[in-house]
Amino acid sequence: MSTGTPVRSSQRSVRACTACARRKIRCSKTIPCTACVRLNRASSCQREQVVVVTRKRGHDADTTGLENGNNSPLPSLSDSDQTRDVPPGDPYSSSEAISNNLVVEGASAVLYPEPRGPVQEHVLSDRSGQGRQQTLTSPPAADSRLTSDRAAALEFLTHGRRNVINQFAGRQDTAESPLSLNSSNVEERWDLFFTEQNSRTLLSLHQSQLSWMHCAVHMPTFRREFEENLVRRECNRSWLALYYAILSQTMYHIDDQHLSSLPQPVNANADASFVLFNKSIEVLFRANFMDDHSIYSVQAICILLQVAHHFDKSDLICILISTAIRIAQCLGLHRLGPDRAISEGSTSSINESANTDRELKKGIWWFLVRYDWYQIPFQNTCQVHPSQFSTPMPTNQPVAAQQLASDGTPNMDEAYTSTSWANYLNHFSVLIWKHHDRMFKTGHPGNSPESIPKLYEEVIRADEEIKASYVSLPPSLREVDMPQDVPTADGLPIGLMPGLILVCTAHKVLGVHRHFQLSGFRDRRYAFSQFSCVSIAERSIAAIIDWPDTLQSRIARRMWTTLTHVISCCIFLAFALLFKSENTLMHDWVKIRRYLQLGKEIISHEEQRSSLARRGVRLLGAMMELEATSECSVDLEAEIGNLIRCVTVADENYLNMDATDPHHIIFPYSQDLWESFINDAMASDFFGV
Asked: What terms describe the molecular function in GO for this protein (predicted)?
């Protein structure tokens, strides 16, 4: 800019570029910004130079400054400033309050950009002539004012943390940065793997048939980025890893028969999904994702989770999810702040782009949260604590598509949307975390005789909470006896959703009773566990066995969560048969045996594609054979222990297993439960023997 151009004065520094300000569009506030890069005007992207001045202080402030020996008044916060700037107290300080704060009701909200910091520091008022001249000649990229946030983060500047550097440099977080062709994370002439038309077809199928599983990618945006990268034929490596991950999930869940019947058939090798999975992992590490943080890396890991357990990669994806949580925290996805209510007369179209971006980040963060909280039984801990993040749950559907009730308020309980499944799991994950938090406070892990009754009270409490949450669902998501020929909207499995939700609920009920599984068959004090788990396991298998043979039902059966949930239900039914001689409770053993066989048949359909299904079929088959001869067994627990060992060490030509990984696939609960079968030192008070 020419030095002769007049420089205007302003109380705020300019963050939007000149082109975006002139066109009155939202600017990403980076140099170059997203809009200028898209329009090939990156070289001319710049901000207007302004002189940052402050509002005149009153006489009292000037007097205070003079009394302290300064020419300019000291910065101070008035009562109104403190009320405006200081954030409210943390509402997530206890597990009892979590349901009222983290479980955000779906009827929210037009969303607005989050505040920059908890306290906006007042700046010095009038500067000297020399200071003003320095302001005129300083680069416009950064805000020269020092705030409390920056002062607190100053000591970490030497660590080179990018979120701290961006804060001091006046740049947005990496999570909001556009694709940068100047970054070292660039791969030229990227491999499409398929033809352009086939790739477009697969991405379209993923958007319509599979995106409801995760809600971690906004597919219209991703497909637009795909077309942009086709023109350039060069792309960000983290984005490329996400591309391969999406194709891998699509190729696994969409059967070959449907792909070959499309107007533009997609013909690929049967191992294409596994090859794409490996390519995504390879590109992630080539992108140095653990050092060069990108929201694309987090999204790629979320998508890879959908197929990792099928490919015998449970250990790998467990570590990748842990890494994704830390990356998401570095990108600030856990600190998005609460939603704002819709103001009267406001229109959502004005902030539609910002709303979509915010909802996407909320969906990514809660994907990681719920998986972390569901994995507590595996690793007996969690990495995310509710008191350490402020990101609310996503709304039930995009703001632009919200249905309004007669009074003008959002009414999102009327219809099933693409985010309903994820939000249902989000609410369940909150209940699971609360349960484990209460169990820990009561004395778990431990087998103290004094704490056992209290632990069981918490188990019954969690059972009631989960079932109450299920009963509160709309009938369209809960009544499994409704006709299954309900038309789908945009590929959503509306007719199948009651069955999916019921089997998911059953898995959570089994999870909270896992500490009392054996004692439920032996001690009448814990018989409620047996009744509760057997009944819901039978209902769950019955709900999904009669699904029609459609594309949506085949997709739902191939989900790793469906297979895991069915295996859990079948294992409990097998326990009921194995221990039927040790309890006098009334059950229809023929009916239980029939549902066990039906559950095994559901899993066997995916035996050729999924290591999860292969191990499940092998385990259930062995337990059923043992049940047929259990009456002749002298030591049933020893027999079960030997059976588990045999299944664990079993090796097949197409399955490469090590000594530890099978525990993550075979056992739907923690290994300590299974070790109790062969542990002679089992606490007698705990199991009531």
From this structure: DNA binding; DNA-binding transcription factor activity, RNA polymerase II-specific; zinc ion binding
Q: Rounded to an integer, what distance in angstroms lies between the CA atom of residue 590 and that of residue 433?
A: 36
Percent pLDDT > 70 in the chain is 65
Angle of helix 527-545 relative to helix 589-604, nearest 10 degrees? 50
Residues in the chain: 689
pLDDT digits (tens, 9 = 90+) for 324-338: 999 999 999 999 998
pLDDT value for 153: 66
CA geometry: angle 631, 637, 642, nearest 5 deg: 100
Which amino acid is located at 619 in the chain?
L
Tokens for 220?
A: 């219209």
CA distance 120 to 122: 7
DSSP class of 655:
B
Helices 636-649 and 611-628 meet at what angle, rounded to 10? 150
Q: Is 164 helix (H, G, I), strand (E, B) or coil?
A: helix
Residue range 1-74, CATH number: 4.10.240
With a CB cutoff of 8 Å and minimum separation 6, the contacts of 4 are none
Instruction: Give me the phi and psi of 235, to 5 degrees please.
Output: -155, 165
Confidence of residue 368 (pLDDT cuts 50, 70, 90): very high
Task: Classify 186 as helix, strand or coil.
Answer: strand
Asked if 213 and 363 count as a contact pair (C-beta separation under 8 A), the reply is no
The one-letter amino acid code at 627 reads E
DSSP 88-150: PPPTTSSGGGHHHHTS--SS-----PPPS-S--PPPPSSPPHHHHHHHHHS-TTS-----HHH
Amino acid at 225: E
Q: What is the DSSP string of 432-498?
A: HHHHHHHHHHHT-S---TTTHHHHHHHHHHHHHHHHHHHHTS-HHHH-TTS-S-PPPSTT--TTTHH
Integer Cα distance of 534 and 575 in angstroms: 10
Token pair in block for residue 599: 């559950």
Every domain of the chain and the residues it spans: 1-74, 186-330, 460-479+495-689
C-alpha dihedral, 544 to 268 to 314 to 278, nearest 10°: -160
> Residue with structure tokens 């969409």?
254
Q: In this structure, are residues 499 and 476 in contact, taking their beta carbons and an 8 Å threshold? A: no
What letter does residue 236 receive in the DSSP assignment?
A: E
Q: Do 111 and 359 contact (CB within 8 A), yes or no?
A: yes
249: exposed, middle or buried (Cβ count in 10 Å: 0-12, 13-18, 19+): buried
Q: Which residue has the higher pLDDT, 435 or 143?
A: 435
